[in-house]
Amino acid sequence: MNTHNGALAPTTELKPDPASTVVEPIMAVEGFSFAYGDKPILRDIDFSVGSGEFVCIVGPSGAGKSTFLQCLAGLRQPTQGRILFKGQAVTEPPAELAVVFQDYSRSLMPWLSAQENIALPLKSAGVSRRERDRRALDALAEVGLEGSADLYPWELSGGMQQRVAIARALAYQPAVVIMDEPFASVDAQTRADLEDLTLRVKQHLGITIVLVTHDIDEAVYLSDRVLALSGKPAVVAAVVDVDLGADRDQIATKERPEFAELRSQLYRLIRRPAAVEGEK
Ligand SMILES: Nc1ncnc2c1ncn2[C@@H]1O[C@H](COP(=O)(O)OP(=O)(O)OP(=O)(O)O)[C@@H](O)[C@H]1O
To answer: Does the keyword ATP-binding apply (predicted)?
Structure first.
């Protein structure tokens, strides 16, 4: 599976790297295009996500990142091409896929406790009461909120609410978690804490994460690979391997010269939409 299919040849030193080929894809995007009515948004995207991989998607505002995630999650259907989850075409949200959105204040039910919020989708899925309680408490412990099961969203800080939203996704025991700007509504310190929490949880549970962010630093810090979208309609500008090792540290990793180089490459790529269009 060639993860660089459909990518424009970048003018930077980025080159398709055979080492980044996904050996065991859990999700695949084949010949994908999407339009809202007659307005093309995303074009000719071929991409795959490896099992256990952390992939971030970056691109200019309005490029279609959220739309792409909605298609990956089975909430919208491609105009052309197809999306596969474990080899099966995605026609509705896959059972083993969970989504975390940016706006925690709207994603949690204010009249339900943290534990009840986490258990709610499990109830809809027919999971027994006992199993719901066990999974909700385990998920709360996973995000460091073991003492907050009985608290209501309005009794929790923004960062804690977003941790409950992450716990709700984890309690579903997904193979893949899709996150759309999940840390955009919290302060910088909380954001860094949530990034580290997400990395820890991903490593501990072995899940696959696909995350959209505006923040190039965040994308490089979190990712195994970054998918950069650019142009109108957006195409794959590049797929960038992030060889920074599994252990990331907010200070030490960001001080590494490789980190600065990757960040600069990505900035250059997504800041030249006009040039990308001209190349087609
Ligand atoms: N439901 C919709 N109907 C029609 N057009 C839409 C709809 N949702 C989004 N769009 C348009 O599609 C384009 C892509 O939007 P999308 O939200 O996917 O981009 P994005 O890259 O996530 O943007 P941002 O980074 O600003 O959140 C935009 O031009 C937007 O106005």
So the answer is: yes
Over the stretch 199-232, which tens digit does the pLDDT of each residue have?
A: 988 998 899 999 999 999 999 999 999 999 999 9
Cα(107) to ligand 1 centroid in Å equals: 20
DSSP letter (8 states) at residue 229: E
User: Where on the phi/psi map is residue 271: left (φ > 0), alpha (ψ -120 to 50), or beta?
Assistant: alpha
How far is residue 266's CA from residue 213's CA, in Å, rounded to a whole number? 13
The ipTM of this complex is 0.97
Residue ranges lining ligand 1, Cβ < 6 Å: 36, 41, 59, 61-67, 214
Q: Which atom of ligand 1 approaches the CA of 68 most closely? A: 18
Q: What is the CATH number of the domain that holds 235?
A: 3.40.50.300
Answer yes or no: do 147 and 91 share one domain. no
pLDDT digits (tens, 9 = 90+) for 122-134: 888 889 999 999 9
